[in-house]
Design brief:
By secondary structure, the protein is an alpha+beta fold. The chain has one domain. The protein contains three helices and nine strands, in the order ααβββββββββα. A five-stranded antiparallel beta sheet has the order 1-2-3-4-5, covered by helices on one side. β6 and β7 form a beta hairpin.
């Protein structure tokens, strides 16, 4: 009987063995959790970076589309003024009239009115505390009995540089100031930076504008085709 009890006690786990097994299991679970947490952080970081790059690409595409579709009629210069304020060296204020496609952001709010004034302006402190590039759209002409409404959207919430230069056909060079509100520059050079970086990760794009304004004769009833 004593021999049988000793044999059974040798087959059982001791308290020390149980504690060691629990410690090993804890280490394994901790390692698995650390790996899972690292993979989750990497996935989140990758998704955030991809979303930011996509937003920045769409912002540049929006600006290029608006500038590439600019409109100017000589008979109504007061309505079609091309305004570029470069007093702030980092952030240009830009406002002009453009014939926008249906795929342009916000077109659904202006059905049947593709001709709208578009304004790009940087707010020093945006929704996340960083400079934010906003785009505002409003109807070029509206009924005097109706309240003129506008639509504003944040294009970039982490802009570090939003700068435009304009091609001067007389000097044959890029200039930073365009004072002729009744004329359009033939080309504009857009320089953008993100996350407060003004020297790193800059994006540059040259945009050709429709620099020939519509003459008065073509706006009159007897002014040809």
């Amino acid at each position: 009987m004593r021999t049988h009890f000793q044999r059974r006690s040798q087959l059982a786990f001791t308290l020390i063995e149980v504690l060691i097994a629990i410690a090993i299991l804890g280490l394994v679970m901790s390692s698995i959790y650390s790996i899972w947490a690292a993979m989750l952080r990497a996935t989140r970081t990758g998704n955030d970076a991809a979303d930011r790059i996509q937003r920045e690409r769409l912002a540049r595409q929006t600006i290029e589309t608006a500038l590439g579709s600019v409109q100017f009629y000589q008979a109504n210069m007061d309505y079609y003024a091309f305004v570029a304020d470069t007093e702030n060296e980092d952030f240009t204020f830009l406002s002009f009239v453009s014939h926008l496609p249906e795929s342009f952001p916000g077109s659904g709010l202006f059905p049947g009115f593709p001709l709208r004034r578009v304004t790009f302006e940087v707010v020093e402190e945006g929704s996340n505390g960083m400079p934010q590039l906003n785009m505002e759209q409003r109807l070029l002409l509206s009924d005097t009995n109706e309240i003129e409404e506008s639509y504003t959207i944040a294009l970039v919430t982490n802009v570090g540089l939003f700068n435009l230069e304009f091609w001067d056909t007389n000097e044959q060079e890029w200039i930073i100031e365009w004072t002729a509100t009744n004329h359009l520059p033939p080309m504009a050079r857009l320089v953008m930076g993100y996350d407060g970086e003004k020297e790193n990760d800059l994006f540059t794009s040259v945009i050709r504008l429709s620099s020939q304004p519509v003459p008065m004769a073509m706006q009159s009833a007897s002014g040809g085709p």
